[in-house]
Amino acid sequence: MFSQKKATYTYAIKGVDTLKLDVYSPEKIKANDSLPVLLWMHGGGFAGGTRDNPQEQRLVKYVTTKGYIGISISYRLLLKNSKMGSGCDCPKVFKLDIFKQAAIDYLDATKFIIDNTSILQINPEKIFAGGSSAGAEGILNAVYMKAHFADDLEKYKNVKYAGVIALAGALVNAEYISKNNALPTVLFHGTDDPLVPYASAPHYYCTAEKPGYLLLDGSETIAKKLDDLGTSYYFNKVIGGGHELCMIPFDQLDTIMLFFEKTVFNSEIIQTKKIITKN
């Protein structure tokens, strides 16, 4: 089904972490092609997962059949081997730093592919940010809260995105979404997700006295903000759904790609909220 070629690059070295990205290009890419790209960040609670998980590989290979370049990145897993995890025992300040560093890693990966546009044959005007679970939190904060988390904004002055795919993700503060940075965004979330809040609620639903009490804005809040701004979005809401909504929805990828074709490439405004009740 898939015909593509793969290349791996190191985009940063940070302490003991050598951060790489896998680039999947259509097999028949032409020398003068400049293709849109999906830049994907895997999930795993900032403790596990890899850029070449089977699902991630299948996704980035899939987009090559649609005329895209698919890129899956590694990033610093700051909770790897941690006994406290990312729940209510993880202090708020540590959580915020984890979100920040994940966003910075994503911005650095984006800067790398932009700096190597001609080699990778990507269109820097058509970079689609995507991620699931922890990766969705990383990309949402990179896209919408770059001004808050980046210490050196000048470094990322050429970094911009065309669209967003977030599976069971959340933002630290959706108020950072504005008319100037709002993008066509695809959101998948279950209303009963026990980890990442579906609307606006504490991360892991921690109580206020817990060290890990941190309010986040989930997909419902993000969609509402985009709706108010008149920005395109596709929101797949599953009533009774849990954190399994972070799984890549392969049965809806054609719908997602069509949404971006209409909203990004053809500049249409589409606001869709698909509501499903879990069986």
UniProtKB/TrEMBL annotation:
<feature type="domain" description="BD-FAE-like">
    <location>
        <begin position="21"/>
        <end position="160"/>
    </location>
</feature>
<keyword id="KW-0378">Hydrolase</keyword>
<dbReference type="Pfam" id="PF20434">
    <property type="entry name" value="BD-FAE"/>
</dbReference>
<dbReference type="InterPro" id="IPR049492">
    <property type="entry name" value="BD-FAE-like_dom"/>
</dbReference>
<protein>
    <submittedName>
        <fullName>Alpha/beta hydrolase</fullName>
    </submittedName>
</protein>
<dbReference type="InterPro" id="IPR029058">
    <property type="entry name" value="AB_hydrolase_fold"/>
</dbReference>
<dbReference type="GO" id="GO:0016787">
    <property type="term" value="F:hydrolase activity"/>
</dbReference>
<dbReference type="InterPro" id="IPR050300">
    <property type="entry name" value="GDXG_lipolytic_enzyme"/>
</dbReference>
